[in-house]
Amino acid sequence: MKAYLVEDDETMRFILKHILEANFPSLTAIGESETGEDALEKVPSFGADVVLVDISLPGMSGLEFVRRLTPKCRGACILVLTGHEIEMYEQAARDAGAHGIISKSDDEGLLEMIGILLEKSKQGGCE
Amino acid sequence: MAMNIAELQAENERLRRDIALLSSANTIILRWLPTGAVTYINEYGQRFFGYTAEELLGRHVMLLVPDVESTGRDLSELADDIARHPQNYTSFVNENVCKDGSRVWVNWTNQTVTDRHGVLREILAIGTDVTGLKATEKRLKESEDKFSKAFYRSPIFMFVSTVEDGTFVEVNNAYCTLTGYSREQLIGNSSLRLGIIPAEERERIVSTMEREGRLDNITTAVRTKDGNARDTIFSADIVELQGKRCFLVSGMDITERKQVEDSLRESEHRLKLLSENLEDMVIQRTEQVHALSTALTLAEQRERKQFSHVLHDDLQQKILGARLLFKQHLRNHQAAGQTEFVDDAMRGVVVLDKAVQTAKALAIELNPPVLSTEGLDRALCWLANHMRKNYGLEVDLCLSGPVQNVRNETQLMLTQMARELLNNVKKHAGVSQCLLEASYDDRLVRISVSDTGRGFDPDEKLEQPANDSHLGLLSIRERLRLFGGNLAVQSAPGQGTRVTISLPHEYSQPRERQAT
Description:
Strand order of the largest sheet of chain A: 2-1-3-4-5
Shape of chain B: rod-shaped
Radius of gyration of chain A: 13 Å
Strand content of chain A: 15-25%
Number of strands of chain B: 15
Strand content of chain B: 15-25%
Mean pLDDT of chain A: 92
Shape of chain A: globular
Strand order of the largest sheet of chain B: 2-1-5-4-3
Structural class of chain B: alpha+beta
Number of helices of chain B: 15
Oligomer: heterodimer
Low-confidence stretches of chain A: none
Mean pLDDT of chain B: 85
Distance between the termini of chain A: 17 Å
Number of helices of chain A: 5
Largest sheet of chain A: 5 strands, parallel
Order of helices and strands of chain B: HEEHHHEEEHEEHHHEEEHHHHEHEEHHEE
Distance between the termini of chain B: 143 Å
Helix content of chain B: 40-55%
Helix content of chain A: 40-55%
């Protein structure tokens, strides 16, 4: 299984990667990008099963990235991360094509959601 | 001897004939001896002086002559002087006095009668009444004196010059003062020869004079003796004088007046220029103030956004990261059965949660994050939720038109204004529900907040705010004006409030560049 992190904050990227590695041993590879533009180029060839994207990115926003990635990576499960209340973006994230949205402060929910998406991925993806 | 007697008789006869002839005429005939004794006066003379012949004959002729004339001339020695120097008095006009004391003027022709030795025997005086003529002459002289005084002493310059070549016939003192020439230098000379007026200017004046018959209020410059130019205004008529056509000119030196007028015109011109420049400066300064105020508003919004981003994208991320990491270690320790510091660790997580909440709330207050990524529609949607969640105000949202097209600074400004309006509802209306409407048409973006609460008198509160309870509305109105927008308030005590803000589309592209 492969996961991909799109997060502009280096510390947060490091911590998320650490959490993924610590809690999901099935993950064999974790890719990283600082911007949506960079990730949009790399994710399709990387073949990520789960993509974690921060909603606030410099340049292309997280939701815009989701909108553009969806047609390129059908089957990949996309989880939007936010530092804001998720109610603000829940509908927008769903409209953009995301399969879930979770607050960065909800660590338990984050782990649960990643687990669910990885399970979905095993079962044929999030199409 | 016989010859002489005959000659005398002939002479007497001739005189008698003459006297007889003149006696019936309106002529005074008076004969008196060198001693002064009157020997004859005709009837007309008697009537003229008011004496009978008897009253005069033998009396001294000086009875008819005043010692001093009304002109002041001394006549007290007149009779003696005539007797001594008759040749000086062959024709003489003097004043006489009648019986009633009245004065008369008589033109006397005095003829001497001598004997053959040339000795004066008698004076024959023939007089004509010239009293009326003298009176006329006197009036004429008085009139001439008056005219002369008026002419010479007038502050208005006057002169008489020939039409033919401009030779001065007469000039007054004012003209001498004007030109700097004496009367003697002017009279007999011409304005052309003295260079007082250029030939072409004189031609123009003469030509106009011939055409119009007179000149009124003509302005022209004259050159004075010392070479200076003086501005004058004059009028002229043509008069006949000593058989020559002459100009009778009167005028005024208006040099000082013209200088004052020119100075006044110049001052007015400068004042006008100054006024125009001042107006331009005011317009320019107003535009600069407007541009700077706009830039300041946008800069403030940009700073708020920047602070918000720092709080959210940096500080908050760091705290969240630390929290995630902390919780991960906690899970690791719990999995390993190491539970001894779990409680302390959980308290640390709570502290981090509070720090996150503080940073998040401050970031949202400064710049709701939704504004950075989405349009006005999403921002208002967030605002409605924010007011419900944090302040218990139910906000019904109604959107019309492509509100999502409003973005960037304009979106932020409108959202902040909408938030102030909703805060007003919460603070002043006394209701827990209101309506938030947003529309986007061909020209304007409009946002309205309506409630059914207490309401207020807009004229009283907005035009003369006694406290700061409505300064928020005034501030919104001023900010909108800077961007060409408008604030409309419909409200009345007890009848709710509807506040509408509107902004032209063009301000979706901020005018910040104008200030730089």
